[in-house]
Specification:
The protein has seven helices and six strands; from the N terminus they run βαβαβαβααββαα. It is α/β, with parallel strands linked by helices. A six-stranded parallel β-sheet has the order 3-2-1-4-5-6, with helices on both faces. The protein is globular.
Length: about 200
C-alpha cells in the first residue's frame, strides 16, 4: 500500500483485450515516475466509443492475469460496477475523496488521448485532480505539452482493435499479449465471430 504523498498512477482503458503495449506503459511509468502503486481501471460503458466486445468480467479477469506478479499493480473495478457511462474526471474525484488532498495522483494517457483531451467531459478539471503523464504513440504528434509530463518511451504499435480482428480471423498473436491472457482468450473463445459464449 502506498503512503501519503507517494505517487499513485492511474491507467484506464477498455483493455479489450489488455496487451503488451499497456504493460510497457505501466512498466515505464513505474520506473520513470517513481510510482508507489499503479491502478488499472477497466472502463465500464465508455461515453465516447462503442461498448467493449468482451464482458466486464472477462476484461477484469484478463487484466488480473496480466498484472499478476507485480505487487505495485492493482486492479480497480469501480468503473465496471457503474450502471451508467463513467467519466475519468468522476473517477479521479472518487479517488481524491478516498486518498485525500495530499495524494499524488498521476493520470497516464497516450499521445492519441492527449490530442483529444479537450473533448473529454470537464477536461479542465482533470489538471486540478491529478498530474497528467503522456506517452508516445506511433504516428501521434504530442502537440502542446506545457501542462503535462512527457514520459519518453519507445512506443509499441499494438492495438486492441487489431488484436480482436486477429482473433476473429483465427490467428494467434503470440508476443503481443501476455501468455496467460492469450490462454484465457483461447479457452473462453473470446473475440470469435461465431460461437462466442454469452455471459
Amino acid at each position: 500500500m502506498s503512503k501519503p504523498g507517494e505517487p499513485v498512477g492511474i491507467l484506464g482503458g477498455s483493455f479489450d483485450p489488455v496487451h503488451n503495449a499497456h504493460l510497457a506503459i505501466a512498466r515505464t511509468a513505474l520506473e520513470g515516475l517513481g510510482l508507489a502503486k499503479l491502478l488499472w481501471i477497466p472502463s465500464g460503458t465508455p461515453p465516447h466509443r462503442e461498448a467493449p466486445v468482451a464482458s466486464a468480467a472477462d476484461r477484469a479477469a484478463m487484466v488480473r492475469l496480466a498484472i499478476a506478479g507485480e505487487p505495485r499493480y492493482e486492479l480497480d473495478e469501480r468503473e465496471l460496477r457503474k450502471a451508467t457511462p463513467g467519466y475519468t474526471v468522476e473517477t479521479l474525484e472518487d479517488l481524491r475523496a478516498e486518498l485525500g488532498r495530499e495524494a499524488d495522483l498521476v493520470l497516464l494517457i497516450g499521445a492519441d488521448q492527449h490530442a483529444r483531451l479537450s473533448t473529454w467531459h470537464r477536461w479542465k478539471d482533470l489538471f486540478s485532480l491529478a498530474r497528467i503523464a503522456v506517452f508516445a504513440r506511433p504516428g501521434e504528434a504530442l502537440g502542446d505539452t506545457s501542462r503535462v509530463t512527457v514520459v519518453p518511451m519507445q512506443p509499441l504499435d499494438i492495438s486492441s482493435t487489431a488484436l480482436r480482428k486477429a482473433f476473429a480471423d483465427g490467428q494467434v498473436p503470440r508476443g503481443l499479449v501476455p501468455d496467460a491472457v492469450l490462454d484465457y482468450i483461447q479457452s473462453h473463445r473470446l473475440y470469435r465471430l461465431s460461437d462466442r459464449p454469452t455471459h
